[in-house]
Structure formats: structure tokens, C-alpha cells
Amino acid sequence: MVSLRALHAFALLARNGRAAQAADDLGISPSALSHLLRKLESELGATLVLRDGRGLSLTEEGKRLAAGLGDAFERIESAVDGFRRRGRTELRISTVSTFATRWLIPRLPQFQTAQPDVELLLSASTRVVDLDRENYDCAIRLGRGDWPGIDATLLWREHLAVAMAPRLMREDAGFEATLPGIKLLHSASRRDDWSRWLAHAGLKLPDASSGMVLESRDLAIQAAIAGMGAIVIDRRFVMLELAAGHLVMPDWPVLQLDSGYWFVRSPNRPLSRPISGFRDWLIGTSAADAG
């Protein structure tokens, strides 16, 4: 008898084209995925996958099996998901980590109060999800809003402003005098933010690219609170810290960016009440923050 789990692993590899993504979707390690694929090949007595330094690819027999399977597992997943969701209204949201931790989650109690019957399932990832094929109702994306085949609503355009711990501020000193004596904090995913802001402000620093590099903007914010240096960040992501006095944002130049945060959904799926309610809440809440 053929292992259904091994067959599912093969179907995910055939669908995604990447072993790492197939393993992630199945919730296992890449080595465990490889073991399942070998198990399936042993059970069927056929070589389904080519293994070389470039990764995994399907053999001709593998392609024939994939064509025969079609979307069987996707239909099974859809049927099981529909069964699980009986009697509940779920909203599955994909977003990026900084938006989730620094802005969305602190405000979600407001949405839950307004929509108590909606159960939120939130996933934070840098991967751009396929809203037509994957099990997400909507997403928050960072970019310019020019994604083909996507219904996108702008929440806000990004800006960059300087923030730091109050003890790092020099009384009555502008950024030209203050920043040369402060370490600059960088996020690994946004290494050019400081260079863009400095160019906008017209300030040249010989060591602008040096300083501590942190994995995420959230960690960079925590380092700034600890007084380890200055950051450039969108004000909306540090509003609580500014209100509490943990950070200050001096009246220095602000760089407006072309990119922004967008609510996105597939126009090929129904616009349900939870989706439209969440979209409208996002628009209203982000507008209130801007005011």
C-alpha cells in the first residue's frame, strides 16, 4: 500500500517546485521530505525525483504521476478546511513581521471588539503568498501596489524619520551636530534606509554603513530603546514608545518613500463580510494614526 503522507509530500514538491517550500507546507524538515520521497519511490518501484547539486526535479515518470494526481490533495485540503470551519467565521491573514508586531497586533483588540464573531488566524512571513492558490483570505504587503491580478488598497505610504533614546539627544543641537557622535542601528533587511535618509537630509557621514546590524526592525527598535544608537523608522511603528518616553523623534527631516503598506486580496474570491470588515477597519485605523 502506498503511503498517503509520502504521496502528499510528492504532490507538494510537484506543485511548489521547491523542496524547501514543500517541506515547510508539510511541517517537516527537508531531510524528512527526502525520506518520504524515497519511501514513495520504493513503494512504487520507480524513480520520481532527480537529485543533484541544484536541488530536486521530477523525472518523466514523476511528471506523469504529478499529472495524474492533479489537484486531488488541494481539493482534500479544501474539503477538510471547510469541515473544520463549520459554525465559525475565520479570517486567515498573511502579513509581514514588522507590520504585525509593531502596528497590527497592538490594535487587534479594537477589531475583535467590533467583530467578536470573527476568529483571526495570523501568519507573519517575508514570503509573498499566492492568494488564489493558498489558504489565505487576504494579506498585508509592503511595496508599490503594482501586483498583477491583485485587488490592492493602500493603507499608508512609508516614511523614514530618526528616533533614539532621550539620553542620546543633545540640547539645542541639530542632526548635523548630533548624528556624527551616535552609532547608527541597521536592520538586515533594510540596510539602505540610513543612506537614503542621510542623502535626503544632505548629511555625509564617513561611517554611515557601520554600526550594529540587527536581524529585524523590531530588534533595531529595541536596541534604540536601550540607548545603543539611533534608527530611522516609520513613526507608526514606534508610537507607543514615543508616547511612553522610551524614544524621542526630533523635528528633523522626514523622507517620504514610494513604497507603502497595502491590504490585498484576490478578486477571484468572494468579498465576504469578515474580509470587507477587516479591510475597512484597517483603513479607518491607519487614517486615525495619520491624523
From TrEMBL:
PROSITE patterns reported in the protein's UniProt record: HTH_LYSR
UniProt entry keywords in alphabetical sequence: DNA-binding, Transcription, Transcription regulation
The HTH lysR-type domain, residue ranges: 2-59
Matches recorded under InterPro entries: LysR-type_TF_proteobact-type, LysR_HTH_N, LysR_subst-bd, WH-like_DNA-bd_sf, WH_DNA-bd_sf
Pfam family, one: HTH_1
Family membership: Belongs to the LysR transcriptional regulatory family.
Record-given protein name: LysR substrate-binding domain-containing protein
